Amino acid sequence: MDIIISNASDQPIYEQIARQIQSQIVRGDLEEGALLPSIRRLAKDLQVSVITTSRAYEELARDGFINMVAGKGCYVAAQNEALLQERRLKMVEDSLAKGVETARNMGMPLDELITLVEVLYREE
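Request: output the structure for the sequence above.
Response:
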Protein backbone atom coordinates (compact mmCIF):
# COMPACT_ATOMS: atom_id res chain seq x y z
CA MET A 1 0.00 0.00 0.00
CA ASP A 2 1.55 3.25 -1.17
CA ILE A 3 0.77 6.41 0.75
CA ILE A 4 2.55 9.70 0.15
CA ILE A 5 2.28 12.44 2.76
CA SER A 6 2.69 16.03 1.59
CA ASN A 7 3.75 18.59 4.17
CA ALA A 8 2.93 21.30 1.62
CA SER A 9 -0.73 20.25 1.40
CA ASP A 10 -3.45 22.23 3.15
CA GLN A 11 -5.17 18.91 3.86
CA PRO A 12 -4.52 17.43 7.32
CA ILE A 13 -2.28 14.35 7.33
CA TYR A 14 -5.03 12.02 8.58
CA GLU A 15 -7.22 13.13 5.64
CA GLN A 16 -4.36 12.55 3.19
CA ILE A 17 -3.97 9.01 4.53
CA ALA A 18 -7.71 8.31 4.53
CA ARG A 19 -8.23 9.70 1.00
CA GLN A 20 -5.34 7.70 -0.44
CA ILE A 21 -6.56 4.46 1.12
CA GLN A 22 -10.10 5.26 -0.02
CA SER A 23 -8.84 5.84 -3.57
CA GLN A 24 -7.00 2.52 -3.55
CA ILE A 25 -10.19 0.76 -2.44
CA VAL A 26 -12.35 2.52 -5.03
CA ARG A 27 -9.85 1.74 -7.82
CA GLY A 28 -9.77 -1.90 -6.74
CA ASP A 29 -6.10 -1.86 -5.73
CA LEU A 30 -7.20 -2.96 -2.24
CA GLU A 31 -9.76 -5.74 -2.48
CA GLU A 32 -12.53 -6.71 -0.11
CA GLY A 33 -11.18 -8.54 2.92
CA ALA A 34 -7.60 -7.29 2.47
CA LEU A 35 -5.82 -6.80 5.78
CA LEU A 36 -4.52 -3.27 6.23
CA PRO A 37 -1.38 -2.47 8.19
CA SER A 38 -2.00 -2.04 11.91
CA ILE A 39 -2.45 1.50 13.14
CA ARG A 40 0.95 1.36 14.84
CA ARG A 41 2.67 -0.18 11.82
CA LEU A 42 1.25 2.42 9.45
CA ALA A 43 2.22 5.23 11.83
CA LYS A 44 5.77 3.88 11.99
CA ASP A 45 6.01 3.41 8.20
CA LEU A 46 4.73 6.93 7.52
CA GLN A 47 6.62 8.45 10.46
CA VAL A 48 3.48 10.05 11.87
CA SER A 49 1.63 9.84 15.17
CA VAL A 50 -0.47 6.80 16.05
CA ILE A 51 -3.26 9.29 16.77
CA THR A 52 -3.06 10.45 13.14
CA THR A 53 -3.34 6.97 11.63
CA SER A 54 -6.03 6.03 14.12
CA ARG A 55 -8.09 9.03 13.06
CA ALA A 56 -7.63 8.12 9.38
CA TYR A 57 -8.81 4.55 10.01
CA GLU A 58 -11.76 5.78 12.10
CA GLU A 59 -12.84 8.05 9.23
CA LEU A 60 -12.56 5.17 6.75
CA ALA A 61 -14.59 2.91 9.06
CA ARG A 62 -17.23 5.61 9.54
CA ASP A 63 -17.55 5.97 5.76
CA GLY A 64 -17.86 2.19 5.30
CA PHE A 65 -14.56 1.57 3.54
CA ILE A 66 -12.97 -0.59 6.25
CA ASN A 67 -14.00 -2.75 9.17
CA MET A 68 -12.07 -2.47 12.42
CA VAL A 69 -12.08 -5.74 14.37
CA ALA A 70 -10.77 -5.42 17.93
CA GLY A 71 -7.74 -7.65 18.43
CA LYS A 72 -7.71 -8.78 14.80
CA GLY A 73 -7.02 -5.69 12.71
CA CYS A 74 -8.54 -3.55 10.00
CA TYR A 75 -9.91 -5.03 6.80
CA VAL A 76 -11.27 -3.61 3.56
CA ALA A 77 -15.05 -3.75 3.83
CA ALA A 78 -17.37 -5.20 1.22
CA GLN A 79 -18.46 -2.43 -1.11
CA ASN A 80 -21.86 -1.96 -2.70
CA GLU A 81 -21.05 -2.02 -6.43
CA ALA A 82 -23.50 0.77 -7.31
CA LEU A 83 -22.13 2.96 -4.52
CA LEU A 84 -18.57 2.12 -5.55
CA GLN A 85 -19.35 3.19 -9.13
CA GLU A 86 -20.80 6.47 -7.81
CA ARG A 87 -17.63 7.08 -5.81
CA ARG A 88 -15.52 6.40 -8.90
CA LEU A 89 -17.58 8.86 -10.91
CA LYS A 90 -17.26 11.43 -8.11
CA MET A 91 -13.47 11.07 -8.13
CA VAL A 92 -13.35 11.67 -11.89
CA GLU A 93 -15.81 14.54 -11.61
CA ASP A 94 -13.73 16.23 -8.90
CA SER A 95 -10.55 15.93 -10.97
CA LEU A 96 -12.23 17.22 -14.11
CA ALA A 97 -13.80 20.11 -12.21
CA LYS A 98 -10.34 21.34 -11.22
CA GLY A 99 -9.14 21.13 -14.82
CA VAL A 100 -12.23 22.87 -16.14
CA GLU A 101 -11.82 25.67 -13.60
CA THR A 102 -8.17 26.13 -14.61
CA ALA A 103 -9.08 26.15 -18.31
CA ARG A 104 -11.89 28.65 -17.71
CA ASN A 105 -9.59 30.92 -15.68
CA MET A 106 -7.06 30.84 -18.52
CA GLY A 107 -9.73 31.72 -21.08
CA MET A 108 -9.52 28.40 -22.92
CA PRO A 109 -12.51 27.88 -25.23
CA LEU A 110 -14.70 24.83 -24.54
CA ASP A 111 -13.91 23.18 -27.88
CA GLU A 112 -10.16 23.31 -27.11
CA LEU A 113 -10.76 21.82 -23.67
CA ILE A 114 -12.83 19.00 -25.16
CA THR A 115 -10.10 18.31 -27.73
CA LEU A 116 -7.49 18.25 -24.97
CA VAL A 117 -9.56 15.80 -22.89
CA GLU A 118 -10.00 13.55 -25.94
CA VAL A 119 -6.25 13.57 -26.63
CA LEU A 120 -5.41 12.82 -22.99
CA TYR A 121 -8.01 10.05 -22.82
CA ARG A 122 -6.57 8.30 -25.87
CA GLU A 123 -2.96 8.50 -24.58
CA GLU A 124 -1.60 5.45 -22.86
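The helical segments are 13-27, 39-46, 50-62, 81-105, 110-122.
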